[in-house]
Write a structure and sequence with these properties.
The chain is an all-beta fold. It has one domain.
Length: 47
């Protein structure tokens, strides 16, 4: 499971509903939501 930094909780969280995507420049990223507050989490690089 991928983890990322939630800006609202200000801590590392597991990413809920994590999806691997490719940014416009071709680099990989992971996007999803924080399981605690529901804020969108975006992490550049493979998660």
């Amino acid at each position: 499971m991928a983890t990322g930094y939630c800006l609202k909780c200000k801590t590392q969280r597991d990413i809920k509903d994590a999806q691997s995507i490719t940014m416009k420049n071709g680099k990989p990223a992971v996007t999803g939501t924080c399981p605690v507050c529901g804020t969108k989490i975006f992490k550049i690089g493979k998660g």
